[in-house]
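Extended Data, record DUF4292 domain-containing protein
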Amino acid sequence: MMTDAFRIPISLRPNAALILLCMVLASCSGTKEMAEVSKEGYQSSPADGKTIADRLPDYTDTLHTLKGKGRAIVSEPNNTERATLLFSSNRSKSLVTIRNGLGIEGGQLLTDGDTLLVYNKVDNYARRIPVRGGNLDRINQLASLNILDIINFTLNADHVEKVQENDTHFKLFLSTGARVFVDKESHLVSEVIQPANSGLPYAKIQYDAYAQLKEFRLPRRITIFGADGQSKIALQVGSLELNPSLEPLTINLPEDTRIYHR
């Protein structure tokens, strides 16, 4: 089995697969630390959870593709790096190209939900990893998630079991164990916290600075905290095309590229 040597070199790849999870939320301006959602003062609420959930934006049937460019800051123990990202995504696949601060392309990642393909352009090799049972490290786990599902978090209203509220937010308790914080004024998701046993590669996602883009209201800033409790990525929106026509999402590997499995 191959080891971490198959990850894109750190000098060119700031933990690329972690970025893939939320790359659409990167920006040309510097990233800012997001304000923490208050966790205090919540009491049982008479508000109907299904009604709150039904008011949340759900673009599953209207937002089909994304294409854009942005920047991100990735933090892990003893390491913080920045990257420029070029990305394209539909509802089944996500493709991202990573460039370092000098504009040098370090590699690409392609995921279809079942398989993750990581291409190291510098050393000319690729690694194909099954998402399930593929022994993904904490970074590559995040690449298995679809970009559109991250930028537009949705939930099944029937999964809301309990509602609490404080002065600014509703807190929805889901049957999955997740907790979703909804801003009372904007009726938009501010934060999602997953239970430790969710099996998801992230523990918490924070959304901020929503903006109207055509008929879609999407967050311009997002922070994702890895399930390991040690990794974090902060992003802001840059150029973004909604529902563009996309070329086939694939990585064109040179003929002499070494391909490893797992």
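Summary. The chain has one domain: 4-261.
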